[in-house]
Amino acid sequence: MSFALVDGNNFYVSCERVFNPRLEGRPVVVLSNNDGCAVSRSNEAKALGVKMGAPWFQMKDLARKHGILALSSNYALYGDMSQRMMSVLGQFSPEQEIYSIDECFLGMDGFSHFDLVAHAQAMRHQVRQWIGIPVCVGLAETKTLAKLANHVAKKGLIPESDGVCDFGRLSATERTTLFESIPVGEIWGVGPQLTKQLTHRGIGTVESLRRADPKVLRREFSVTMERIIAELNGEACVDMEEVTPVRQQILSSRSFGSYVSDLASLSEAVASYVAIAAAKLRRQESLAGRLQVFIRTSPFRQDLPQHAQAVTIPLPTPSDDTLLLTRAALWGLRRIYRPEFEYQKAGVMLMHLLPATVGQPDLFHAVRNNDALMQVVDRINATWGRGTLKSAAEGIGKPWGMKRERMSPRWTTNWTEIPVAK
DNA sequence: TCTGGGGTCCTAGGACCC
DNA sequence: TCTGGGGTCCTAGGACCC
């Protein structure tokens, strides 16, 4: 088997730079919702020590001192740029798995007569020219190794690699030397906890994990660890997933722009999250058997009284009806709500999903379910934008809504915000 | 003042079945 | 001292990913 992993460099920042060249060469970060944490950083920002996920309010001094520019996240822009990038990359292989907003795997089986490195350079060039996003490419015989090769390409660990790394071109000893220099935590699937436990056992590098006994580590950790070791040794255990599998749960939650303690605002928020989740549910043609509502205060504010609670509501029959789901959610919210707390976040999770075609309607389905209405709502919102048609329970002004003070325009998805050349 | 959102997989343990 | 064997389903919690 042979895989390529293509990954956009500092993806959100790169999207912003496409439409605002003044960001080029400067330290830039893109913040999470509510302008909370740094989730994408330009190389210049990384060099200044801005860590992934660092709370922005703690970095204000650093930002002032070095002129770091911060932007609110603009998912309309990133989502659209992602689709464009993926469609260009999809032309370089018959098999493509879109793994996240900024990366995809390409199946490279049958490309053995190609110069893979030249092929990868062609991808980089094409994406850069047509979309404006810089990407790196990793090539290897398993997905785990392709991810690792991508890391090597991005960090420039092999001189003159120029954004592409093909493990197939390394001799056995070159591989060993390289793997001995990479910490075990860089491996796909090895997070902070496993890094700590592995290092404790004297397994601190990629090479030492590759040579570890898979049976022993399976007993001490889990099958996942055994698979990782096999993949590091070139035995492919994880195949391409070309059709995105339907979700098994759908979650919609947000932090509030400021703390909320009244039931009316919480109800509006919960109703809004139900609408988002239910629309996703209908798009994948599923029904939900259960719905969970949760609310919580800020865990970072231990100086304030804490409350976090969830309630799961089994639905009488599986449903995808926003109005019915909203009623269930608000019923649940009233059960867990306590007026004396300052809530920071609420959310709704749809669970026990099953395909709409096998859902068993009960005798009163036709009178109670709003199938036709939902279709109209989805169609109108698809044409005119999310939230054009909504339930009154969602509220109008949404004063509890997200803080986004530094948002760039939706350059590519909204006629009124399209860039103008003067 | 201010700390993201949305997922998956795996394991353990309890309830329950015959 | 010793109390069957084999299975499913569900939930909670932990770890990981981007």
Short account of what is shown:
This protein is α+β, with helices and mostly antiparallel strands and 422 residues long. The chain is built from 15 helices and twelve strands. Helix 6 (143-155) links the parallel strand 7 and strand 8 (164-166).
Protein model, in words:
It is a single chain. This protein has helices spanning 11-19, 43-47, 60-66, 75-89, 116-130, 143-155, 172-180, 192-200, 206-210, 214-220, 223-232, 263-283, 322-336, 365-368, 371-384, and strands at 3-8, 28-31, 38-41, 69-71, 96-100, 103-107, 135-140, 164-166, 250-260, 286-296, 308-319, 343-355. The protein has 422 residues and is of the alpha+beta class. The strands form 3 sheets. The protein has a 5-stranded mixed sheet. It has a 4-stranded antiparallel sheet with strand order 9-12-10-11. A 3-stranded mixed sheet has the order 3-2-4. Strand 2 (28-31) and strand 3 (38-41) form a beta hairpin. The longest helix has 21 residues, at 263-283. The chain is globular and about 70 Å long. The structure holds a DNA duplex (18 and 18 nucleotides).
